[in-house]
Amino acid sequence: MTLPAVSPVDLSGAEALRAQLDAKAKPLGALGRIEDLAVRLGLIAGGSPPSFDRALLLVFAGDHGMNAEGVSAYPSAVTQAMVATFLAGKASANAFARAVGAELRVVDAGVDAELPSHSVLIDAKVRRGSRNAAVEPALTQAEVESALERGAGIALQAAEEGFEILALGEMGIGNTASAALLMHRLAPAPLAGCIGRGAGHDEAGLARKIAILERAAARSAATEPLEVLAEFGGLEIAMMAGAIIGAASAKIPVLVDGFIVSAAALVAIRLVPAAKDYCVFCHRSAEQGHGRLLAALEVEPLLALDLRLGEGTGALLALPMVRAASRLLSDVASLDDVLNGRL
Ligand SMILES: O=C(O)c1ccc[n+]([C@@H]2O[C@H](COP(=O)([O-])O)[C@@H](O)[C@H]2O)c1
Ligand SMILES: Cc1cc2nc[nH]c2cc1C
Question: What residues sit in the active site (predicted)?
Fold first, then answer.
């Protein structure tokens, strides 16, 4: 497998960026964590960050064999139906993308259907859905590598097209189950603390999901990222991990959405630790386990709005904050100029 090389961000510029912010026409530190975000964006850019006017949301879609066990409250068919909805421009992600000025593309990483070609659909299908991880490995090693490589390629292509920032989202009924297993092995964390209600389990559904995931976890003792991905899937998660590595290698920031994208970021970071420098963790979702996952990654999300949709909606909501943080560096006068009439 060939994944692009990632350079860690050069932290030596942090002091100069912090000094720039401190000199702005505002009380010292008054923009709180937006100032930290501005420093991070400056470090990623290696100087003045761009405006981030050109933003792309990639929604990675895939199906999960574990759905045969009843791991989700919703049927697998919803994945394909929601892909059609994205293509029709009528999902929440489309509405939010329009609201914040981002382009949206859908990546077919492994939907269990033949999808018609469409101008915003990227066909990167590795196979029609993962296998049932409760009874067998979800993916082969070759499928994992192919998903990672394709994800990296898609991010590199976006950077080449001139996108200044990538937001990642996903659509995959059953993918909180895969994400929970990945977190369990790679955070690592006790399995029970990684499992939540996903798209909407009641108590009985949650109990069933826990029993299924205990069975899946008992099948394998894997702790190495590529093996864990093969055991527990899924294709959209593996491809997002590749996309994070691709964006990091192109030195563009990645807006990480909810629980599932964070699990993909965890995989990417375990494979390529420097990839973490390029990730902006946008929100803490309502999925139980997400808070613990973010804590394991030692990151603080920008928002906590009790979202639990996925699709990249939380990442899109953070995009204006990223743009504002960048404008803070480029557009705001110094206090010295303000006090000396140099506007
Ligand atoms: O982003 C999140 O934190 C999040 C939390 C819960 C559910 N989701 C979405 O719901 C689907 C997965 O839920 P489930 O129960 O089918 O595993 C998938 O399409 C995700 O986009 C997303
Ligand atoms: C309708 C629906 C839309 C979604 N979008 C992301 N995950 C989803 C899950 C369901 C069930």
Answer: 311 (proton acceptor)
